[in-house]
Specification:
Blueprint (H helix, E strand, L loop, with lengths): L1 H27 L3 H24 L9 E10 L7 E12 L3 E10 L14 E12 L10 E14 L3 E18 L6 E12 L10 E9 L8 E13 L8 H9 L1 E14 L1
Antiparallel strand pairs: 1-2, 1-10, 2-3, 3-4, 4-5, 5-6, 6-7, 7-8, 8-9, 9-10
Length: 268
């Protein structure tokens, strides 16, 4: 019993000593815990502020913005070498979605189509596309993928051609800020769409459209430089679908054509 009492006294003495030491530490550093909590909160706030500053110049809302585009075009596939393209439409740039719908016109005319003289001509276009930026790893947050549709019509003095074509594609926005609190000193968008033949039974034209935009349309800016390059494969014009042997012969005669447009886009 005597040894038991001594053990209890020793344990109580150690507990009192420990409590006394803790009280002394708190008295000497009364704000240490609060300081750590405040520092952690400040760090989180600074991190959030940095993220906001980094994304502040970017378009984030689902608000459609009208735009106009004007520029010269280099034409292939029997066209006269130069034309002027005028385009207008709506553009949407948000955190997870990008879309565009527009109508365009150029004064391209055929000079080497096997049906001369054919002095007048022009092209009309309608197109719409929607792209998504999936937040899936390991995909980068600036990549986007989507699909669309386009209609085009070639009108000449001697004939008219038109077609509807679906398309799929994607791209990437290169965004490079010089510092976390600075506006981006460089940005660029590269987009590639594969345009299918659709119901174009006359020429079966299909290929890729490549668009380069400086700066990226995700930026909250108004002026953009855009280069558009199209590389298309097509066959000779089918003149009579009912004549199978002639149609097969015309479809076997295939060619490549390139188009390029360089212009200025202004987004309101």
């Amino acid at each position: 019993m005597f040894h038991y009492r001594i053990a209890v006294i020793i344990v109580l003495a150690r507990m009192v000593a420990a409590l006394t030491l803790n009280a002394q530490i708190l008295a000497e550093h009364p704000t240490s815990s609060a300081s750590r909590s405040s520092a952690s909160s400040d760090q989180n706030q600074d991190s959030a502020t940095t993220r906001i500053l980094e994304t502040a110049p970017l378009m984030t809302r689902l608000t459609p913005h009208p735009y106009i585009y004007v520029g010269p075009s280099l034409m292939g596939a029997g066209y006269a070498p130069f034309a002027i393209r005028v385009e207008g439409g709506l553009n949407v740039e948000s955190t997870h979605l990008s879309s565009q719908a527009g109508a365009a016109f150029d004064n391209g005319r055929q000079v080497n189509d096997g049906d001369q003289p054919n002095p007048k001509g022009h092209d009309c276009y309608l197109d719409a596309a929607i792209y998504f930026r999936p937040a899936w790893r390991p995909l980068p947050s600036q990549a986007f993928f989507g699909f669309g549709w386009r209609w085009s019509q070639l009108w000449t003095t001697n004939y008219t051609k038109s077609a509807n074509r679906p398309q799929i594609g994607g791209g990437y926005d290169f965004l490079h800020p010089s510092c976390s609190v600075c506006r981006r000193d460089f940005s660029m968008r590269i987009a590639i769409d594969w345009v299918m033949a659709g119901n174009d039974w006359q020429n079966g034209s299909h290929g890729s459209d490549i668009t380069i935009s400086l700066p990226s349309p995700r930026e909250q800016r108004h002026w953009f430089w855009q280069e558009r390059v199209g590389i298309y494969r097509f066959h000779n014009t089918v003149t009579d679908k009912a004549n199978i042997s002639l149609a097969l012969s015309q479809r076997a005669d295939r060619s490549l054509a390139c188009y390029a447009t360089f212009g200025i886009m202004y987004r309101f």
